[in-house]
Specification:
Layout (H helix, E strand, L loop, with lengths): L3 E2 L2 E17 L4 H11 L4 E8 L4 E9 L3 H9 L2 H4 L3 E14 L9 H11 L6 E4 L3 E7 L3 H11 E2 L5 E3 L10 H5 L1
Parallel strand pairs: 1-8, 2-9
Antiparallel strand pairs: 2-4, 2-5, 3-4, 5-7, 6-7
Helix pairs in contact: 4-5
């Protein structure tokens, strides 16, 4: 069986997940939450938003674990504007992403990704996709197994497994500047 080609796998082991849950859906909700984080210089590395059957909006995002407390404080300041029923957080999560230059041309790439993770016993906490990337938030404890499962499912060279320790950019000098 021929494996699907992928450009690589990116893992980020140092994240925290925040959920701004059950807000009345209306224009400006995401803007208020994400602008508050941006004003504090907090990089949001993963975002997904959905509306439930009761027309309530939910935003799940990930920030660097060491930015969690400041991110929660920033979101708390938006509470009176966005009216969430609850703000939740989870430490010790990771993100694993598989990317390929032509994923949009191949039906079933998402299913292959999720099947590989499920087969390894990895529970997906949140999913975000783009035209060329599938990103999954998972427990940090399962990150190594998730990477191995994706390497088995996709044709990806071992040299194309990257760790994004200080943000999404693999070319960023932010890590060096912080040290």
């Amino acid at each position: 069986m021929t494996k699907a080609k992928a450009g690589g796998i990116i893992q980020n082991p140092n994240l925290a997940r925040i959920g701004v849950m059950s807000m009345p859906d209306r224009p400006g909700i995401a803007s208020a939450v994400l602008s508050a984080l941006g004003k504090r210089g907090i990089n949001v590395e993963f975002i997904v938003q959905c509306i439930d059957l009761e027309n309530r909006s939910h935003i799940i995002l990930c920030v660097a674990q060491d930015s969690l407390e400041e991110a929660l404080a920033a979101i708390e300041k938006t509470r009176s504007e966005v009216l969430p029923e609850e703000v939740i957080c989870q430490r010790d999560v990771a993100m694993v992403s598989v990317f390929g230059p032509h994923f949009r041309d191949y039906p079933g790439i998402a299913g292959l990704t999720f099947s590989a993770l499920a087969g390894a016993g990895i529970n997906i906490l949140a999913i975000s996709t783009s035209i060329s990337t599938i990103s999954c938030v998972i427990s940090r404890d399962g990150l190594s197994e998730a990477v191995r499962a994706l390497q088995k499912a996709f044709d990806v060279p071992s040299s194309a497994v990257f760790t994004a320790a200080c943000g999404l950019s693999l070319r960023s000098t932010a890590c060096e500047e912080k040290n």
